[in-house]
Amino acid sequence: MGKRLTFFTHESIEEPTGLGRSLPIAKELVKRGHQVNILALHPDFPSVNETHLLIDGVHVYYVGQKHVRKVGDQKF
User: Fold this and answer.
1) What is the dihedral of CA 36, 30, 16, 75, to 10 degrees?
2) How far apart (Å, rounded) are the C-alpha atoms in residues 29 and 7?
3) Whole-prediction pTM
4) Tens digit of pLDDT for each residue in 4-42?
5) Using H for helix, E for strand and C for coil, what is the string for 11-76?
6) Does residue 50 register a pLDDT over 90?
7) Phi, psi angle pair for 14, to nearest 5°
């Protein structure tokens, strides 16, 4: 029986750290029978329409605003 695992990250899964680290590791763990959740911050949280995504068996929850807000190429 698989384990329930939760990752906490300050990066969106759309950013390099999320795409290159968190999400691939989480996907591999799902393939091995584990339930994986990622709780992430988003660089433009007010623009997020869906705060829960299911990506290849990985549950991603955007839970708040990242410490630096980014809209397009602008950082605030």
Assistant:
1) -30
2) 12
3) 0.88
4) 999 999 989 988 888 899 999 999 999 999 999 999 999
5) CCCCCHHHHHHHHHHHHHHHHCCCEEEEEEEECCHHHCCCCEEEECCEEEEEEEECCCCEECCEEC
6) yes
7) -90, -10
